[in-house]
Specification:
73 residues; alpha+beta; 2 domains; 40% helix
Length: 73
């Protein structure tokens, strides 16, 4: 039987900043004993309508700016 691999989901939480991403990788290894990490990349311009992209963030505490588009960009 093979050993299971632990995958840490970092997603988009690094805000596009390499230093934050590197720190999150280190934390995943130290605290979660992760074998690998997973990031996400997507094009919201293709996935969402203009109305969805221009809508205000539903939870301002988790937002970097005012609209979903601004937050993602």
């Amino acid at each position: 039987m093979k050993q299971a691999k632990v995958i840490a989901e970092i997603g988009c939480n690094h805000k596009g900043e390499m230093e934050i991403a590197k720190e999150m990788i280190k934390i995943a290894k130290i605290f979660c004993n992760a074998d690998v990490v997973k990031f996400q990349k997507r094009s919201n311009k293709e996935l969402l309508s203009d109305d969805q992209n221009n809508a205000p963030q539903p939870n301002p505490l988790n937002s970097y700016l005012y609209t979903y588009r601004e937050h993602i960009e």
